Amino acid sequence: MASVVRERSIYCRTCLGKILHVRTFTSSAARQRHGAVPTFSSTSSPELDNILATFRSKVFLPAHLSREQQSILYRKKNINLLTSEDEPANVKIANETHRLLPLDHKEEPQTRRSLNRMLELMKEGRDWVNLPAFLENLRLSKRNIKDWQMAKIVRRASDNGNQGIILECLRRMEKTGMVLADLEVARAVMWGGMKKCMQTDWTEQGLEAAERYLNSVWNLMEDERHVKKEIQRTKKDPRMRPEIVGVMLQVQAIRRAFYGEGVERGSVQRSAETLLASWDNMEAEVDELDWNDANRKLMMWGPIWHGIKIAVGILGESPLRMKLENKMTKDLEPKIQKAREVVLAYAPQPEKRIGLSINEELLSVEARKS
After folding, report:
1. pTM of the prediction?
2. For 237, phi and psi rounded to 5 degrees?
3. Band of pLDDT at residue 30, cut at 50, 70 and 90
């Protein structure tokens, strides 16, 4: 009689069937909360489809099983038992029946390497719709993604015009692990708003969509799920960072300056006041020998400069305008000039560095307004 050894107990085929068939999610309250094993939609890349399928079968499915069921799958003594075609081992999760096969931890895909390759392959919108479920099940499988990796995901999604998918992940943060309390993630998310303007060539519709996106992000920043109490209202709080507020001011101001009618002036004023209140939290001077640092800071400082440059023409003669202009000319512009010089002097192919190219783009937009 075929049998499987688990710890000190011996299970025959009949007993194994009880473990695999009876102890399913439909009868296990502890497992019901995980729901069904994710089904990924077809993508534009066969390789990407294969990566998703591999994670589904070798990582996500086991995470939906009980410990008793998992123990059976990973024991080499059970290979013949699980591969029997006469009596295949099946388990029903939600409304789907899964064939269970032997697994080996050594054959599981690596999270970091697989994720990097996925980001290279994700080109179309249908590729990105799988992201929320993928992140949720990585988290369920106890595969943690570092903050810098999450920020990279956000940037790549925005580069491909999929800011809506990022919003979905943020709204489901308990499951996806994408949280705005992390400053790098918040920067990348806000960057997506300016990227949307660039992708639509600063059209009225594009600016309106970008502002709507940024308002949704800002509201989520106020959601207690995205707030870390230990950094609340400190310089580590994304809501108190000029590079975060600066993007909001930039989009609001340029939308009003370009397409004025119907655009609320008060929103520009409120963002300008918030920017001034957060000014002391701005990044310090650049390292003269580190062009990577200079390039990164150009990315952060460019939208702030652009937002102020446009906003001062909207605010009229006021103390707020004077303060903004003073901060821009005496503090921000010298920093930007120094960062540009470092990138131009030390970066290989400086014209391809995103911080420098963004600043050139913003200068051209400012010239268009004039």
Report:
1. 0.86
2. -75, 120
3. very low
